[in-house]
Every structure is written in C-alpha cells, then in structure tokens.
Amino acid sequence: MSTNVGVVMFPGTNCEQDVAWAVEVLGGAPELLWHGDRTVGASDAVVIAGGFAHGDYLRTGAIARFSPVMDAVADFARAGGPVVGICNGFQILCEAGLLAGALQKNAGLKFRCETVALRVETTSTVLTRNAERGQILRIPINHFEGNFVCDEGTLKGLQENDQIVLRYVENPNGSLDDIAGICNEGRNVVGLMPHPERASEAILGSTDGAVLLGSLLTGTGL
Amino acid sequence: MTRFEARIEVGHRPGILDPQGGVIERALPALGWANVSHVRVGKSLRLEIEATDENAARAQVDEMCRRLLANPVIEDYSIQIMETEPA
Fold first, then answer.
1. CATH number, domain with residue B59
2. Whole-model pTM above 0.95?
3. How many C-beta atoms surround the C-beta of residue B27 within 10 A?
4. Which of A66, A104, A106 shows the shortest C-beta gap to B74?
C-alpha cells in the first residue's frame, strides 16, 4: 500500500501541484486538502506546501494558522502523525506554534531563488530518516522571508535536543545558526525553507530532494 | 458602550535584526542627513472598538495583539486608546 500524503493548500498556495507530483513520482498517493477542510482525511502524512497563504497578509502564516484545516493538522501532529512544512508551510507551522521560532525578512532584503547546499544534521526525523548525517543535499530555495530567528533559550533547546535538521553550507538569508530546517521535540513535525519537491527528478537538475520526501513516504522508525 | 479608536504600533523586539531599518539608516546619510541613527521599521494599525470603558478596550486590543496582530517571538507592540468623537 502506498503512503497517503495530504497536501494542504490555502488561497495563495502555489506549490501544491509540485509536491503532489513529486509524491506520486516517488510512489506515494497524494491528496489535496483545502484550507477549509476540518479533517486530514486518510492521510498517513501531511505536507503544507509553499506559496503565499492568504497573501501573507499581516505576517507570513499569520492568517493561515486560523484556517480550519490547521486544527486537524495540529491534532494529527499531536497524535504523532508526520507533518512537513515547506517554505511558506514552515512559516505557517511556526505561527501555529507547532514549531519554535519565526521566519523574518532575509538579511540583505533580497528574494533568494537559487539552488543551495544543505547539510543533514540529524537523521532522527520523519524527513531525514533515509539520509545520512553530514550528507550534503543540493536543493532550491525560493523565499524572501527565510531568516530563522528565536530567542537564546529556544536556540539552546533546539541545539541540545538535536532539533536542527538542516543547515545551509553558505548562509543565504542571515538565518540564525545557519538553520534551514528544524523539527519539534517529537521529531514528527519538520519545517524547512528549501523545496525538496523541486529536486525530486533528474530532469529538474537534482534528485537530492527525493532523499527527504522518500523518507516521509517509505521511512520507518525514528 | 463607548466607541474608542485604537492605534497599535508593532515593531521588532530589541535584538531582532531589522533589515529594512538598516537599509534606511544607510540611505539617509546618502541624502546628507548624517546625524540619524537607530532607524526601526514597524507597522501601524488603526481600528475602532466598542467597549464599556477604556480599560476593557485596552484589554481586548492587548489580547488581539498577542493572538494575531503581533508575533511575540519577534515583535513588540504598543497600544494607544482614544475615545472617538460622538457621531
């Protein structure tokens, strides 16, 4: 049986088709979930796709966290279900309090759209369990607000609990401690700014993203 | 019930990088104003609210700031409450 992956979309989400395509290519069964849905259906895993949910009005993710589907996603996450937020999805998970910290405007105020090198810092998450620690992945970023910030105590907690999942090899946005992705304490909720779905087929220039999405689909155990 | 106007300013918490403030701070000397420093960019929100008194209005706006209008992880806010002119 293939893994059912619920792909959450809000008004303004624009990466849901790419995520659904990548999931299908990797052998999963994607299902689009609308922001007004009150359940995540038969999902075995949930991905919150990138874009500009609710126009990113007020702050990125600030309005999206109040959509009905987010209550269902929070319940799913609390029950241990794998949840991944990509780019805008990461911002939404932070606003919803499912992940620590916040993402603000890039230092240098540039929209960064390029393929970057990432280092896998832990394999003990639903998104990296098929990867190797220290492995370098080349995956595109595409964001204006990817500059991760949190207070000192939170950062110390992330470092000590091995919750920093991915780091930039060369920091493109001023992100604290070169953070590109983090997980929650349960290790089943992961947020990352890079787009693994855009690096999941050879024709796209890199298949490194397949290591991450493949973990979500086929990985077992943490 | 009385109608109040609330003026809310949302800004970066101290110690949180403000990239826009930094750029403006560097742009001003280029126009000849070399004596400007500590530029911070934030948001200003205005709204009207009906409440029994000023304290009730302030308490509600404060909760609205904590739950939606500001992100306490990176932002601070200040609230001004004024009685609006009777219509």
1. 3.30.1280.10
2. no
3. 12
4. A104
From chain B, the residues in CB contact with A106 under 8 A are: 19
pLDDT in tens, B3-46: 999 999 999 998 888 888 988 999 999 999 999 999 999 999 99
Q: What is the ipTM of this complex?
A: 0.82
Domain count, chain B: 1
Chain B positions touching A152 (Cβ under 8 A) are none
Compute the C-alpha angle A210/A144/B12, nearest 5°. 125
Of the candidates A87, A208, A74, the one whose C-alpha atom is nearest the C-alpha of residue A138 is A208
Pairing of strands A83-86, A45-48: parallel
Residue B80 resides in a domain: no
- Rounded to a whole number, what is the distance in Å from the CA of B69 to chain A's nearest CA? 7
Q: Which residues of A are part of the catalytic machinery? A: 87, 195, 197
Q: Could you give all domains of chain A from N- to C-terminal order, each with its CATH number?
A: 4-218 (3.40.50.880)
